[in-house]
Automatic annotation (TrEMBL):
Pfam families, per the entry: CobA_CobO_BtuR (PF02572)
Region Disordered: start-end pairs: 1-33
Coiled-coil regions listed: none
Superkingdom of source: Archaea
Name this polypeptide is given: Cob(I)yrinic acid a,c-diamide adenosyltransferase
Amino acid sequence: MTDDTTDDSSERGIESQTDEDAPAPTAGAIEPAAPEEFGLVQVWWGDGKGKTTAAMGMGFRAAGHGYRVHMVQFMKGGAGTVEDVRGEYNAIETFPGFSYENTGHYGWHGFLDGSDDDEHAAKASGGLARAEEILAASADPGPVALDAPPEEGAHMLILDEILYAVNRDLLDAEAVRDLVESKPDDLELVLTGGHDRPAFACELADLVTHVEKETHPMDAGHGARKGTEY
C-alpha cells in the first residue's frame, strides 16, 4: 500500500531538525538596517489595557533588528495621579534606534481637573503636525543611524493615543485619515487609543485589534500602578 501523503515541511522546503541540532533563539548586535516587509497600517483600539504596551513592544522588537522607530504620544501629558518619570521612557532612552516625544497637555481632557480644553486641542494639533513632518521624512529612508533624529526618517512610526484624541474631538477624523493615506509605502504606521471603534481608520488598516476589557483593577478602586501603567 502506497502512502500518497507528503510531509508538509518537505513541501515548503523546510529541513527536518532534531532537538539536538535546532538552533536556540538568541540575541545579536544591533546594527542599522532597513526592513523588507514593513508598510502596513495597524489600529489598536478598545477599552482594555494594553494598546500602548503592545505598540511599544513592537517598537522594541523592530529596534532590536536595527530599524529606526519613533513614537509620538498624544494625550498623555502627565497628571497629578502619576509620577512624572515613566518607566517606558527610561527604557526607550537606553535602547538604540527607538525614540519618543510627548505632545500631550498636562491633565486629563474633559475631566474638570483645571486644564484648558483649547490647550489640549492645540497640543493635539501640534502632535499631528509633527507626525506629518516625520512621515514626509520617511520616504525610502534605507538604513538609518540608530542615534539619528526622527527628522531623518523612521521605519516604524507609533502614534500613541491619536485615536483617543479623535474620540475626544481634539483632532478631526478626516485629518487623521489624510495622514494615513499620505504615508510612505514602506513605513509601518501604528495608531492606538480610543474606546469607540475608529471606523475611518479601520477602513484603511491592514491589522485591527480590539482590546476589550473583561476585568480591570481600576474598577475595584486601584489607581495607576508604577511599573504596570507608567
